[in-house]
Design brief:
Distance between the termini: 39 Å
Number of domains: 2
Largest sheet: none
Mean pLDDT: 91
Order of helices and strands: HHHHHHHHHHHHHH
Number of strands: 0
Low-confidence stretches: none
CATH superfamily of the largest domain: Farnesyl Diphosphate Synthase
CATH class of the largest domain: Mainly Alpha
Helix content: over 70%
Number of helices: 14
Shape: globular
């Protein structure tokens, strides 16, 4: 891939990330250009495999498509990538020491969604899922930020879980439409909820108890992430602090709304997201 085609592909990736309107876009703009472009490519990869898992295709087709990406990840690290995005990722993997196992972990997480409909997993299963679909992204991210220490991986471990648990609590009604439920069965049982199907669980009068327990777990991971960030170079951790601030604000709003109006969306205005990103990314 020549320099012009690489520049054109990176520009296309950048435009798609910007068009998605995510908090991620503003947080990543705090990075130097090369590291920012690597994060956009990582985001594009995550969107590719996430779209496969969420598609309406038959399960065997989804698994086959994810297997194709496994082969592409192998090719990236063997220097024989075939896909345009793969060639961009290969360049970033060499430059920033991204790890093959973290890309594969993300695919494994997406296959958990593609292989079966997740409904009330155990806490252990939920933690594995969060590690694969979120903390593995964090492990790639901290290397793109320029840190590959044990403390940086602790940030990835805890912040990834905090963000994913917040996503789960935010998307309960949306996941129900896909017949999915990520609330752990241990928390449901503690709340006296024996059903596991999404509709029955989410309309149970004690649903708030289970949701509060998961929100408490997310708060724990936010706190541990902040402790680990304090042990890392402050400038390199600016995007992580910004993402943590935006998602923690969403968690606070979810708790303020409560758990009886799950169809009522929680969204931070773009102005608030930008302010939080700047406040926690620049100070």
């Amino acid at each position: 891939m020549n320099d012009m085609s690489a520049m054109a592909l990176r520009a296309d990736i950048r435009d798609k990330v910007a068009a998605a309107g995510t908090s991620f876009y503003w947080a990543m703009r705090l990075l130097p250009e090369a590291r920012r472009e690597a994060m956009y490519a990582i985001y594009a990869f995550c969107r590719e495999v996430d779209d496969i898992a969420d598609s309406e295709a038959p399960d065997e087709d989804k698994r086959a498509a994810l297997d194709e990406w496994r082969h592409e990840i192998d090719a990236i690290f063997a220097g024989t990538s075939r896909l345009p995005l793969g060639r961009v990722l290969a360049e970033d993997a060499r430059r920033f020491h991204l790890r093959r196992e973290d890309f594969l972990a993300i695919i494994d997480g997406m296959e958990m969604d593609a292989r079966e409909t997740i409904q009330a997993p155990s806490l252990a299963e939920l933690d594995l899922y969060c590690d694969r679909v979120a903390s593995a992204v964090g492990r790639l991210s901290v290397r793109a930020f320029g840190i590959d220490t044990e403390e940086a991986d602790r940030v990835a471990h805890h912040l990834g879980r905090a963000l994913q648990l917040t996503n789960i609590l935010r998307d309960l009604a949306e996941d129900e439409e896909r017949d999915r439920l990520y609330l752990p069965r241990e928390y449901l049982r503690e709340a006296g909820i024996t059903a596991t199907t999404p509709g029955e669980v989410l309309r149970h009068p004690n649903i708030g108890q289970a949701c509060d327990k998961l929100a408490d777990l997310a708060e724990h991971h936010f706190r541990e992430a902040r402790v680990a960030m304090a042990l890392c170079p402050r400038r390199a951790m600016r995007p992580a602090r910004a993402m943590g601030a935006v998602y923690h604000a969403q968690l606070v709003r979810l708790r303020q709304r409560g758990w009886q109006r799950l169809e009522e969306p929680i969204k931070l205005p773009k102005s608030v997201k930008l302010w939080l990103a700047l406040r926690h990314g620049l100070l």
